[in-house]
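User: structure tokens for this one?
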Amino acid sequence: MLKEFKDFIAKGNVMDLAVGIIIGAAFTAIVNSLVGDLINPIIGLILGGINFSDMFIDLSGKAPVSLAAAKDAGNAVFAYGAFITAIINFLIVAFVVFMLVKSVNRMMPKAPAAPAAPTGPTELDVLKDILAAVKK
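Assistant:
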């Protein structure tokens, strides 16, 4: 059983998956920093100083000053700013993955074209021949 396990782990696709997960986790930290530290401030500046992370609706009716204060007080909040940030993160990750896949596909060698299928009679031609033979 130990040999089977070693063979399973040594397969290329398992190792590729493990590397992909590790790289993905590291990439997530980079994207979160990119969005939180660079993109959101620029978007906030363009929109007049809006900070997405502080956008929320207090459902308890107590009107706290900030989202952190509302959460510390245990108030029910609708933190739609965090959702906007998550959407921005997703769009950036999706775009970067798209560009990565596109560039990797360009670098991959082209598969040789399959030889053309031999031309011959179509189904309709064969049926017409059968019909002609039956009529004789």
